[in-house]
Protein: Gfo/Idh/MocA family oxidoreductase
Organism: Dyadobacter chenwenxiniae
Amino acid sequence: MPILKAAIIGGGHIADQNHIPALKSLPERVELIAVCSRDILKARALADKHAIPLAFDNAAEMFESENKPDMIINCTANNLHYPFTMQALENNCHVLCEKPPAMNAAQALEMADLAKERGKVLAYNFQLRHTPEYSLLKRFLENGRLGEVYHIKANFLRRRGIPSWGNFTNKSIQGGGALMDLGVHVLDLALGLLDYSEPDRLIANTYDFIGKAGGKGLMGSWDPEKFEVEDACFAHLSFPNNASITLSASFALNTKMQKNVNLEVFGTKAGAVLNPFSVFSEVDGELLDMEFPHLEEADIQLKNTIAFLNACDGKSSNICDATQGAILQKIVEAIYKSAEK
Amino acid sequence: MPILKAAIIGGGHIADQNHIPALKSLPERVELIAVCSRDILKARALADKHAIPLAFDNAAEMFESENKPDMIINCTANNLHYPFTMQALENNCHVLCEKPPAMNAAQALEMADLAKERGKVLAYNFQLRHTPEYSLLKRFLENGRLGEVYHIKANFLRRRGIPSWGNFTNKSIQGGGALMDLGVHVLDLALGLLDYSEPDRLIANTYDFIGKAGGKGLMGSWDPEKFEVEDACFAHLSFPNNASITLSASFALNTKMQKNVNLEVFGTKAGAVLNPFSVFSEVDGELLDMEFPHLEEADIQLKNTIAFLNACDGKSSNICDATQGAILQKIVEAIYKSAEK
Amino acid sequence: MPILKAAIIGGGHIADQNHIPALKSLPERVELIAVCSRDILKARALADKHAIPLAFDNAAEMFESENKPDMIINCTANNLHYPFTMQALENNCHVLCEKPPAMNAAQALEMADLAKERGKVLAYNFQLRHTPEYSLLKRFLENGRLGEVYHIKANFLRRRGIPSWGNFTNKSIQGGGALMDLGVHVLDLALGLLDYSEPDRLIANTYDFIGKAGGKGLMGSWDPEKFEVEDACFAHLSFPNNASITLSASFALNTKMQKNVNLEVFGTKAGAVLNPFSVFSEVDGELLDMEFPHLEEADIQLKNTIAFLNACDGKSSNICDATQGAILQKIVEAIYKSAEK
Amino acid sequence: MPILKAAIIGGGHIADQNHIPALKSLPERVELIAVCSRDILKARALADKHAIPLAFDNAAEMFESENKPDMIINCTANNLHYPFTMQALENNCHVLCEKPPAMNAAQALEMADLAKERGKVLAYNFQLRHTPEYSLLKRFLENGRLGEVYHIKANFLRRRGIPSWGNFTNKSIQGGGALMDLGVHVLDLALGLLDYSEPDRLIANTYDFIGKAGGKGLMGSWDPEKFEVEDACFAHLSFPNNASITLSASFALNTKMQKNVNLEVFGTKAGAVLNPFSVFSEVDGELLDMEFPHLEEADIQLKNTIAFLNACDGKSSNICDATQGAILQKIVEAIYKSAEK
Amino acid sequence: MPILKAAIIGGGHIADQNHIPALKSLPERVELIAVCSRDILKARALADKHAIPLAFDNAAEMFESENKPDMIINCTANNLHYPFTMQALENNCHVLCEKPPAMNAAQALEMADLAKERGKVLAYNFQLRHTPEYSLLKRFLENGRLGEVYHIKANFLRRRGIPSWGNFTNKSIQGGGALMDLGVHVLDLALGLLDYSEPDRLIANTYDFIGKAGGKGLMGSWDPEKFEVEDACFAHLSFPNNASITLSASFALNTKMQKNVNLEVFGTKAGAVLNPFSVFSEVDGELLDMEFPHLEEADIQLKNTIAFLNACDGKSSNICDATQGAILQKIVEAIYKSAEK
Amino acid sequence: MPILKAAIIGGGHIADQNHIPALKSLPERVELIAVCSRDILKARALADKHAIPLAFDNAAEMFESENKPDMIINCTANNLHYPFTMQALENNCHVLCEKPPAMNAAQALEMADLAKERGKVLAYNFQLRHTPEYSLLKRFLENGRLGEVYHIKANFLRRRGIPSWGNFTNKSIQGGGALMDLGVHVLDLALGLLDYSEPDRLIANTYDFIGKAGGKGLMGSWDPEKFEVEDACFAHLSFPNNASITLSASFALNTKMQKNVNLEVFGTKAGAVLNPFSVFSEVDGELLDMEFPHLEEADIQLKNTIAFLNACDGKSSNICDATQGAILQKIVEAIYKSAEK
């Protein structure tokens, strides 16, 4: 297999801490050749820090340069996922794009279509798929230990976790709040247990009481005046096969735990909780609780990067691909629409 | 105040263990004069056990007797709530009827209309309203400590709790399963926090996988062949003021706890969990968890009986009255309809 | 099936509290007709208390009486297990004899031979076989979930539990101490997992330091001067198929727990602990701990009495029969012999 | 006292991490002059890393060199303990040899004889003797607080701890499995409480089911095809004074804890558990549990190295000397022989 | 020994529940012949309930009757301890008087003087002296295990425990509040560890904030208007040998525990906490925590009654005698005086 | 605001680890220009380590140098607090002096008078005032949530914490023991809740049993021969408004916890415990326990340094100023005097 040439677009924290270290640890598969950021100083600093040869402040220039990348990691703000991903695909690059896929369903669909047309891999960085707990949950599902899954409660709840950095409360840049930033993670996990099918019915409510009122911040202090997104979102999704998902996401909610990221999965043969992974079932005529005393920690970004590279090499792998991303974005849009009613 | 003459219709366990002891402990307010049951031997035995003078196997006869009752406790099967309550109202009796109100919304509405017409009190026996935890929750709400409540998760979940006695799995007698028998309790509690307003949107799913497949029973063994109702129900209700409720009820579900009856309440100023009652809020700039080390146990049936008697005496009191019962039954019907789609 | 006529020999606590209530609760299968005790007043009092028609102070007289018993419950002291059981068998009675089977291996063998010759059921009252934990352990073993069991640690340990009543420290009456009274229970359970095969090698040590020195008593105070038996016994048994058992029993031992009755079972596929019942294994490539949140309590004496009656009716059932009792007594004797070296 | 010149034979992990740091921290007592390893590059690298002047790939050469060592640390594989220790003693060096002493009893005896003949110290590196818990246990024993110790349960159990590195599953190099590698540690501790007397009776069983079947590895994955040693060993030892030891060791066993290294010690006055150190006894007529809230952590390798150096200086010290090592190896051999029956 | 004839003065709860059952269980030592209460109906009812022959409403009459008592149990209100005890002593009766001894120091001294003069036993019913924890604490002290005790923290604290029955908030009847009713118990225990010596210095503060403000009552609701005593008392006592006691008592205090009755004892060799009894010391050079896994429950009233009877029989016994009672009352008075400053 | 020039007097651990890092992190407010220590080598080394330009072994010289400091951090031994602080004030420097203020009340008063006379800030380094728990406690007090505080238990207890370094057991250098070194911290906190008023009555006892007897040391081993101070101090303080404090401090005490630094505060509306911060009160008619799930850790030295600098800038700030320090030292002296009686 040839070594792919990779470039980073977007010079923020997630590039520095997650994507670049993952790529750098795979020198036999990928070579990091460039960083591109609106701010050339930032691009240069990041490139220098990680010994990456090139720095750009203009993506077009990068794509036209001699040492053109084969793949792009799109780490830009949500509202730039669409333009830079489209530009990369048009330049025949594979793209690993940060989540959420896009600002709306139409963009995500267009991105999926172009990826298909160009025969390139487009994937979204839902790295929670690679936790040992979710991997084991999937194995249980695939081995038939859960029977058929018919209801899932998917939660990504923070008590006071509105980030004070970045643009997390700015609707025109982020496209949304708790659902767009947090809820999509557990929605992706839940859909992954239902063959990523599309719901035929859904209902949702969103709120912004705490965000707009202000309060104690556990991820820095936010400005209630500039809070434009939902701080909490609750939705119920029903699927053609009658399975259902209850989705709850919050930046701020008056609840006990500071952070609660979890799935509760109910199957015909057994139920499961993701964290800590445990299974509730019957055996030999008695109720059974299963616990797993030794699940190894995993570098979930590294595992997702490898899954993406495997896809680029034409292998099947566990990524959120362009098609799934479009379905997820369509659901997100439907949730927001339902909540407006 | 005159002492009311009371009669029991339906000679089962709930009459014997709950209603009769409560009434007997209030001799200054009520006199138990008769028991009526289809089976005269059962009626007689119950009457003898509790030193009640009269026993009937025919309600009409009872209403026509000289020593006519002023109030009726309707402890019959769900499908008999409507006919006996109607008959009692027509005979100008107050009625305390077991939950759920009726088999469908039309019946409950009719019952409410007749009660109004006759100027009699009709109430449903939702006694969980009188737990010290719910009473304190209401005080917190009324004193403004929660702010405005905008989302409630209401759960009445059993892991393997399909009763093997009675008719709990028979649809034509019960009208439904986990929702009709268990879910209505927490739905009543949740609605009580939202001024018993009616949802303008809802969606629901119901299931019967475990009930129809069979398994370990913790409330006796049930016959999967005769399981005709839902073993689990999940619904999302949205209200005109944008508040929402997530309702979950089960007779059987692959979950950790054997029994989980709880509300999680999210308000603009504070959130609360019902059991054990605790509140999550902020004070003096810090996150605050409130716990209550000494809540006295209450005889909730006695409290509900007293509330009903107070209503009969024309005092305002915390009962689920005929109007609320009709709203609740309407929601239940809507949930079942949504689940059929 | 005809109703068996039963008589009790030995009028002590275990007859009064365990055997008679169990028999009395099975009127459709057994009729208690007589109590026999050396002390006629005691026999009479016990008979009166439980409404049993006849009382004897002479077993021979009882066997010769008109209303002769079909079965005997032998509740006498250890040194009388042999003579009364032999007498009962000779009189063509089935016998349920208290544990241990006898004072030595020769007696137990003779008892087994006579039972066989007469075609009568002789069983020993090892009622711990019927705990829900052991029943589930057996089901796991039979369903292959443990694989092949190759090592068992069997413990019946008390920190300071030398009974101050009865004859527990008198060797000529009891035949031994902690092993004879307590260890035999868990030895029976362990052998039950190994097809009750006989060990081909064993080694043991017994001690009486604390018994002879005296100390705090948690089951009354004992007299160190009259302490003639072992207060602790440790043995290792090796079986022809290379399985092994480590057996530990104590009346008194300087250990943390007041009482510790347990098996640890090690199989090729899984291991198990009896109390609380839990299983340690692997599933889907991960280590698995299994717990059982709802095991119902059982009336283990009643279950053993029923098992005995089933055997009398010619059905196969889970009892410690005469053959097993002889094997167990042979092992006990071999342990004491090894400890003398 | 003169400073001893020390050389390391065997350039593996235990030399690098344990022995060299301990020796290096004692410059006033010992000077590390050489490393000897079959692989000269490895020897050189280790010497350079720790600033040790000389590196050899031939022990004979080292002993003949001008700057000849006074003492040897033998960190080689089990099957090389004998030849290199013999060679070192013949060259008049003191030897601190890794455990187990040798491949069999004859070797260990020969080593002890030669050490005696040459007047040199030969000790085995059983460093668990120096944990604060065992030191305190010994003080309790010596101060008479336990009375006479008559039974010990000694466990070194791993659930899935077959090392994937080194030669731990190779019988011709290791001489054995769980007993040889792990069990010897707790056997040494237990013997140390019984004046290192020799058992006059013993019985044992060994198993290799899990090792040969494969499974989840917590210390890397092992190859079941190449698993030649026992994965579990259970033995009972009886001593001339009637004391007894139950020894359990495993590389792999279906048990709850990942790792369980412990002694339970039963004495006439008190019992003790090693980890966490606690004592069970009586005081002023009541049962007493003793706990020790502050035991300082110890560098157990450093303490054993100092003990060895003290012995070289002719002082009495707490080491496993050549005589004890020979006794221990004799027991190990007897256990394996018993298990073959 | 002759059987003593006993009479009860004061027909309340403590007579009915504590003293009479204790006396009745000792028929070989004491015969209950009379009950005396201001209310003859109450006296009669209590006498009948317990099969006591005589009932009086006039103590003088009782003392003049033919069947005159030898001993009196004085169960009257605090302000009647003095007159009835004096009258009983004048009639040559032994007296077991409820605590506190009297309303003030002068009364208690006079009572002690008269008892001495008449040669009769006067004791106060401080039954907490007989808990197994305090008994063991005393044994530890006497056996020298604590060394010299130099500081004691004595607490009897209730969070919201103002009794709504009796006269607990009435100063003219009770003489005081939390100190008089609760604090005296732990003061007696603490003094018992210091040879009941008298403090040469003390300082105290008392409060009545919560009692006068009202609040949640856990022992019924009290009337803040009628709250005349202290709800909390804190004092420091210093003794001639430089030992010291910190005493804290409360009916109502904003503290975590509902009830906290405890001593913390600091000695030169060891410290102890009373509940649960534990000792903190050193052994063999390490810090030691001692716990006692099996302290039997005791009937502390029965034990105190026996101790009183032993004293009447001229045996030494662990009672709070007249002299100690006078010292205690003197300290209580000094505390109240100090608090007034 | 001008940048203040600061100098350190006393080159020990507390200067190196606490004060210099705090000052260095505030370059916009303060410039560290000199270190002064009796030992010029120590002064030089510390100055070099932290890049401080000047080093002196003579304070007079420093004050006369050209680059004269504006403020002094006095980190000397207790007996030097007075002379160096006086010298600094005379040289018109602000002074942040380590605790305790001085050796006796007279010194502290003189220091306060001179500070006032020169118009300079003198503060003592009681940094525990800035823990998030105490800050929140103060906010609760100020917001009226506790009502009026009337009793405080203030503890700084170590089980075996006599420092083996420094001069902690030397009376002529330290002025005292557990009270002087530890107790003053919690006394300062307690006084801070009572408007730093002066007690009008107090009583105390001090002890040195363990210090003089020796024992296990958890902060190194101390020499009992050289132990000249109290190892424990217990005092009761009563204030003009009737509030009271119970103060307990120990270097060594036979108690369970190794270290126990805490306040229990009792107010008319609520009580509080400092660590972990929790509040006990009533709400809506029920008992309430308040917990605070997220208190951020604070750099308490930095916060106290900033508070001192703010005071130098004329702003009000939370420091223990010269007046408060004099009150505290007066109380300490009174405690020692009381204990001598």
Remarks:
- Residues 149 and 325 of chain A are 22 Å apart (CA to CA).
- Chain A has a mean pLDDT of 97.
